[in-house]
């Protein structure tokens, strides 16, 4: 019986765009081209210290001990295959889609299973022909180590994973003639967003501008200004504590919104608990009344966390 164990690894998933159409047009020619492309892909995977886990039809799964080498392999594959496709007519080109994910998987013998593999396959299915899409776990490891650009695509819905998986399209080069992810997959939405962005609108000012831009130093300056104003007009009351609390709430909400790896519902519960605790302390009259809503928040947050873990382990 094969040993079953868990491990953290980088999953590389690839398949052919419009494979069925190519097979209908020329079965023997398509199979010969697939074999050549897959041999080239296998050679590059091995050169970057990866290994092919499985192949089926037009698909391929590989794993790498290094996240950086997995992305470099994907870039090399797309560049080499682009050169091969230049010799073919547009309707005969064989273009691969590649997805890469860093995640925990179940290893049984030479095979891999689990959400880590499923996410890579979902990323690959969402990539454009000739393109690469990576998860946020990969992006965190490669963003300053590989000379390519990245476009944030937002959360990608994946079965059994609440809130989706934040994903990024890889820009292989500015002169790359292949369509970008946004142009191919979200063409209409991108055009609508561009039109909306082009409309003239007043610039936000003050605290709202700081929240939208994520400029926490601006919030610090506003907070310091409030404290200074309170001290300069001192009449025995520290009134600036309440606007300072409001600024802290806005900053907390902005932080939760801009960090995709934070569960928003749990983050908001934690923030709400901290606000209640602060209000209780600032209005202290000898009674710790915040204990009951804090207990309720803890119960709801615990249920939410357990539910999320069960869904991640399911499938």
From TrEMBL:
Example GO biological process: intracellular signal transduction
Q: Does the keyword Transmembrane apply?
A: yes
Task: Write down the superkingdom of origin.
Answer: Bacteria
UniProt keyword annotation of Transmembrane helix present: yes
Pfam families noted in UniProt: Guanylate_cyc
Task: Mention one GO molecular function.
Answer: adenylate cyclase activity
Keywords from UniProt, A to Z, are:
Lyase, Membrane, Transmembrane, Transmembrane helix
InterPro entries recorded for this chain? A/G_cyclase, Adenylyl/Guanylyl_Cyclase_3/4, Nucleotide_cyclase
**EC annotation from Swiss-Prot or TrEMBL:** 4.6.1.-
Q: What class of enzyme is it?
A: lyase
Span of domain Guanylate cyclase: 10-124
- Which segments cross the bilayer? 209-232, 238-256, 268-284, 290-307
PANTHER family xref list: ADENYLATE CYCLASE, TERMINAL-DIFFERENTIATION SPECIFIC-RELATED, PH-SENSITIVE ADENYLATE CYCLASE RV1264
Q: What is this protein called?
A: Adenylate/guanylate cyclase domain-containing protein
Q: Which organism is it from?
A: Ensifer adhaerens
């Amino acid at each position: 019986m094969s040993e079953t164990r868990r491990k953290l690894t980088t999953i590389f998933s690839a398949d052919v765009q419009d494979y069925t159409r190519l097979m209908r047009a020329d079965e023997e020619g398509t199979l010969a081209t697939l074999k050549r492309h897959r041999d080239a892909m296998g050679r590059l995977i091995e050169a970057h210290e990866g290994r092919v886990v499985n192949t089926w039809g037009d698909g391929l799964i590989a794993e790498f001990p290094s996240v950086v080498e997995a992305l470099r392999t994907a870039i090399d594959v797309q560049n080499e295959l682009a050169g091969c496709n230049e010799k073919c007519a547009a309707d005969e080109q064989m273009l691969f889609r590649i997805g890469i994910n860093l995640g925990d998987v179940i290893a049984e013998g030479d095979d891999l299973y689990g959400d880590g593999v499923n996410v890579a396959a979902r990323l690959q299915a969402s990539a454009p022909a000739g393109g690469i899409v990576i998860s946020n776990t990969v992006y965190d490891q490669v963003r300053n180590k590989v000379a390519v650009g990245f476009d944030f695509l937002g959360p990608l819905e994946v079965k059994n994973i609440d809130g989706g998986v934040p994903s990024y399209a890889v820009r292989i080069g500015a002169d790359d003639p292949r369509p970008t992810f946004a142009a191919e997959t979200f063409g209409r939405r991108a055009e609508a967003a561009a039109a909306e962005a082009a409309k003239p609108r007043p610039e936000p000012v003050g605290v709202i501008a700081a929240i939208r831009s994520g400029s926490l130093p601006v919030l610090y300056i506003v907070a310091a200004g409030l404290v200074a104003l309170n001290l300069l007009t001192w009449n025995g009351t520290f009134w600036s504590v309440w606007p300072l609390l409001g600024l802290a709430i806005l900053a907390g909400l902005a932080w939760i919104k801009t960090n995709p790896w934070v569960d928003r519902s749990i983050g908001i519960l934690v923030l709400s608990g901290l606000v209640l605790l602060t209000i209780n302390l600032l209005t202290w009259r000898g009674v710790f009344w915040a204990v009951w809503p804090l207990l309720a928040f803890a119960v709801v947050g615990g249920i939410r966390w357990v539910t999320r873990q069960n869904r991640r382990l399911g499938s």
